[in-house]
Amino acid sequence: MPAVKRTGERVFVAVGGGMSDNPRPARYGIRCAPRPIGRRPTADSRTATVVGGRGEAGDILAAEVPPPADVRPGDLLAVPVAGTYRLSTASGCNLVGRPPVIAVHEGTARLLVRRETPDDLRHRDVGA
Known about the structure:
Number of domains: 1
Strand order of the largest sheet: 1-2-4-5
CATH topology: Lyase, Ornithine Decarboxylase, Chain A, domain 1
CATH superfamily: Lyase, Ornithine Decarboxylase, Chain A, domain 1
Distance between the termini: 36 Å
Protein name: Orn/DAP/Arg decarboxylase 2 C-terminal domain-containing protein
Number of strands: 8
Domain Orn/DAP/Arg decarboxylase 2 C-terminal: 4-83
Keywords: Decarboxylase, Lyase, Pyridoxal phosphate
Largest sheet: 4 strands, mixed
Structural class: alpha+beta
Strand content: 25-35%
Pfam families: Orn_DAP_Arg_deC
Shape: globular
Radius of gyration: 16 Å
InterPro entries: Ala_racemase/Decarboxylase_C (IPR009006), DAP_deCOOHase_LysA (IPR002986), De-COase2_C (IPR022643)
């Protein structure tokens, strides 16, 4: 669910994911290719930087990519082929659970690994 910030000519699209669930762009400079899904854009593309919601300077998922100019809160952006090791390198930074793993084939989506919940994170805490 992106938030969109326009500052002059620069456009930033902040998404729910980030460097804790997909560390490869921040760690290794891997370029992601986010794509809007769920609705047809009504505007041409505009260059933007897609950032995560972790508040870290390196939380840039994709710089200078062309999402539609009409991207707005509530839209879904998919990061196809996020990487083989994405799930195994994900962390619970800032107590944000790891995302689900979803396979998509010929227009059909199938959940492979469910999203990590706050209860999952709390379950590991044994207290003081």
